[in-house]
Specification:
Number of domains: 1
Distance between the termini: 26 Å
Strand order of the largest sheet: 2-1-3-4-5
Helix content: 40-55%
Structural class: alpha/beta
Order of helices and strands: HEHEHEHEHEHH
Strand content: 5-15%
C-alpha cells in the first residue's frame, strides 16, 4: 500500500470516528458571526457523519445532572468542555473570549481550537498572551467570507479523530 492509499484509508477512518464536537462563539443575536458558527457546524457534520456536534446552548444537562441549573454558567460549560473531544471557538464575541480566558489554563485547554482574525496575530495584550501557545488558527477577511477557514478546521478535527483512533491525545 502506498503512502497516498494509507493516508486515504486513515482519512476515511477518521471521518467515521465518533466524536463529540463543541462549537463555541457568538449567539443568535450576533448576525453574520452566528451564521458563520452555524455554517462551521454544518460543514463539520457533512464530513464527520458519526459526530455529535453541539452548541452549548443545545446541551441540557438537567436530566443527567439534577441541580446543575443551580450552578453558575462556568460550571455548566466545564461539563460541556470535559465531555467533548474538540471545542472549536469562533473568537468574534466577548462571550467566546471570556470562555477562552477562563478555560485556557485548564487540563482541557488542548481541546480548544481558537479561530482568531489575523489582525490580532501580533497583539501583545493579555488576551493574546493567553492564546499564544494554544491551538489557534488565524484567518483573514477573505478566508472568513469564503469559509476557506472551515477546510483548516476540518483538517484539525480529522487530526483529533486520527489521534483518538490510534490512541494519542492531539
Amino acid at each position: 500500500m502506498s503512502f497516498d492509499e494509507a493516508i486515504s484509508r486513515l482519512d476515511r477512518q477518521a471521518a467515521a470516528y465518533e466524536l463529540n464536537i463543541l462549537v463555541w462563539g457568538p449567539g443568535k443575536d450576533s448576525g453574520e458571526h452566528f451564521e458563520k458558527r452555524q455554517k462551521i457546524r454544518r460543514e463539520i457534520n457533512k464530513c464527520f457523519y458519526n459526530a455529535d456536534i453541539r452548541f452549548s446552548e443545545d446541551l441540557d444537562l438537567t436530566e443527567s445532572l439534577p441541580g446543575i441549573d443551580e450552578l453558575d454558567y462556568s460550571a455548566q460549560e466545564l461539563w460541556h468542555l470535559a465531555a467533548c473531544d474538540i471545542c472549536i471557538v469562533l473568537d468574534t464575541s466577548i462571550g467566546a473570549g471570556e470562555e477562552i480566558a477562563y478555560y485556557i489554563r485548564s487540563q482541557h485547554a488542548h481541546k480548544l481550537l481558537i479561530l482568531t482574525h489575523e489582525k490580532y496575530k501580533l497583539s501583545t495584550n493579555f488576551p493574546a498572551a493567553l492564546r499564544k501557545h494554544q491551538n489557534q488558527l488565524f484567518y483573514d477577511d477573505q478566508q472568513y467570507d469564503s469559509c476557506n477557514l472551515v477546510e483548516r478546521v476540518l483538517t484539525r478535527v480529522k487530526t483529533v479523530a486520527l489521534g483518538k483512533l490510534i490512541g494519542m491525545r492531539i
